[in-house]
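Quick one: structure tokens for this chain, please?
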Amino acid sequence: MFGNQAVERKIRMKIGELRDGMRKVNVVAKVIQKSDPREVYSRARDETYKIADSIVSDETGTIKLTLWNEQIDRVNVNDTVKIENGYITSFRDEVQLNVGRYGRLSII
């Protein structure tokens, strides 16, 4: 009936389960804090970007989520956000959630 079609399952993870190096992460969390935006310069691309750090939480923990450019204005404290296809990194011994080029951030 369905032949060889692959069924994509999006499994939602909890913040407490996230570890450095994870890819294709799907998370729903509440924004509890957001920094003022700052500018960073990329020598590789010769471009300036706006970034802001936010803290998101669920019932299992909190994690830093970095917001880039237009995401900064879309996301506010107390919003519930859904991250699809995100990834986890560690910077200065702090685990962080990233949306990245192939991920998606939406407000729900």
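Strands lie at 12-13, 25-34, 38-42, 47-58, 61-68, 80-91, 94-98, 104-107.
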